[in-house]
Amino acid sequence: MATGTNPAFRLLDDPDEHAGARVRRVGGLTFWAETLDFRTQAAREFIDVTDQVAAVLRRSKVTQGWASVFSKHTTAAVVLNENEPLLLQDMGAMLERLSAAAGLYQHNDLSRRTGEMDPNECANGHAHCQHLLIGASENIPVGDGRLDLGRWQRIFLLELDRPRDRQLVVQVFGA
User: Fold this and answer.
1) CATH for 35-112+120-167, among 2.40.50.140, 3.30.750.24, 2.60.120.460, 1.25.40.10?
2) What is the pLDDT of residue 3?
3) Is the pLDDT of residue 45 over 50?
């Protein structure tokens, strides 16, 4: 992970850029990374983060390249889809049918679990299984300084577990 002490990256203090951004410029290429913080409110909550990702892209000043959006969690995913409320309900219902919260999961038997566990561990096997179907990241082409999304496409942080703090890493690469 790049930090302020890693010589490959530097933390920016310049008010014209963005405090906390990690950036490296090599020749005409920029490698820009920011971590965005969110507080989710419910399971299977779709949070449209398109505008926040576009803001990171603007700060990077990259006009041609790629933007990668990555969830740092095993029970929160990143998806591209349409922001239509009934469709979002349908997709949430589909995930519930495929891996129901009330289902039986070995992971939920905390008395049998091995390995490190968080003190606030909960029964969330369904969320891990749903995440397996979706994934942790999406890559979006950048053209003319904008996310090159389709007409209806939006970028979502998808909470699969319960309300909590979440982080997305947005990395922008290009010229």
Assistant:
1) 2.60.120.460
2) 37
3) yes
